[in-house]
Amino acid sequence: MPLLELKHVSKSFAHAKGTLQVLHDITFDVEEGEFIAIVGPSGCGKSTLLRIINGIVPLSSGQVLYKGKQVDGINLECALVFQSFALLPWLTVKANVELGLEAQGLPLAEREKRASIYIDKVGLDGFEEAYPRELSGGMKQRVGFARALAVEPKVLLMDEPFSALDALTAITLREEMLDIWQSPDMPVKNIMLVTHIIEEAIELADRIIVLASGPGRIAADLKIDIPRPRDRRTDAFNAWTDKVFSLIEERA
Fold first, then answer.
1. C-alpha angle 162/80/27, rounded to 5°?
2. Structure pTM?
3. What is the maximum span of the chain, computed from C-alpha positions, in angstroms?
């Protein structure tokens, strides 16, 4: 049984002139252990699809199944990392990381222990009492990662988490997140990443789902067969980049 199944998922929103369909007939499975990237032109519904998988946004028709059971409401075995950091400015790093744990009702001692573990894993040891205004963009996003990882989800959903960072910081964080995910002691089994950067998708993902626009629908489901670690300077990497770019350009 796949870990996650999307069956004929469609989503429409009320619009001033009627109804706007954002996603149409999205169907694919996710096996345990896969890293999947979702790419496509702007406005094709990538972020909406991620939120439907998480249960934040209800679908209009179709089904999302997790471990064979239909997802109704928030899937508590998923966690979402946002593009915009989404930290509460009046809370310290430690308090921001503990937010999800507090919502789960964990005792204070367990929250503090778990937060400390994941703050250390993302390289922020020593910054527990700092406030978001005192952190760089990269450090803020590390807090976002730690907060998502601290609830120990099975599926980590990431919505363009590196796009607001400078190039060097983004490279570093991508490498670190891949190392964290591949660590044998990590509870996260799957990562689903929305990105508009084709090279990022090819560098990280086992599979790339390419969405077409108007409304968003699956244009291609590609299995990336380059062994890790992946070098962007190789012919194989460049060939995949050209292929994905062409698919997006054709279906924009």
1. 100
2. 0.92
3. 54
